[in-house]
Amino acid sequence: MSWFSSLLLTLFIVSLVSAQARAALRIYDASSTYRYAGCWNETTGIAGSSGARALAGGISQDFPLNGPMTVETCLDLCAHGQGAPYRLAGVEYSRQCWCANRLSSLSARLPDAACDLPCDGDRTLACGGSLKLGLYNLTESGKNGAVRAGGVGSAAVAMGVVVAGVVMMVGL
Question: Does Glycoprotein appear among the keywords (predicted)?
């Protein structure tokens, strides 16, 4: 076998192992406060967004590279951080957490597999992707019986009214 054939075989095996590792990522579903609502695109590069994030107007945290970021850490920030609780929590790019009450109307639902990056703090869990948000929706119990956040529910059905380019979430 030539060195070139060996190189091609090695590259093929590495790409196959990498693809299998990504497919093995789990979606976090152990929260009683938030429910998974799907993978959604980020809006910063979309025409008409003026560079605004899909989850704007709330708080965010960018954890250190290879730091303690997990979905649970992000959900805790969105439930208890400044101005909390937020209706929506989003994990992105393995270590970013976004909390807001509205999702931009420019953000679109993607296949769950598009959120293909692992959390830096737990490599078995999906933590969004490059310009992709793993989105979580506040549940009724997370708001202690207050008005249901609705909109993107556990069945991942979005329903809202567009007001000035922002989706105002409504209960289902």
Answer: yes
Does the residue 107 lie in any domain?
Answer: yes
Instruction: Tally the domains of the chain.
Output: 1
* Residues spanned by the domain of 105: 25-169
Provide φ and ψ at 97, rounded to 5°: -125, 130
| DSSP character string of 131-145 | TEEEEEEE-TGGGTT
Residue 16 domain-assigned (yes or no) = no
Average pLDDT per 10 consecutive residues for the chain, totaling 172 residues: 52 47 82 97 94 96 90 97 96 98 98 98 98 96 44 38 45 36
Dihedral of CA atoms 121, 54, 36, 144 in degrees, nearest 10, equals 100
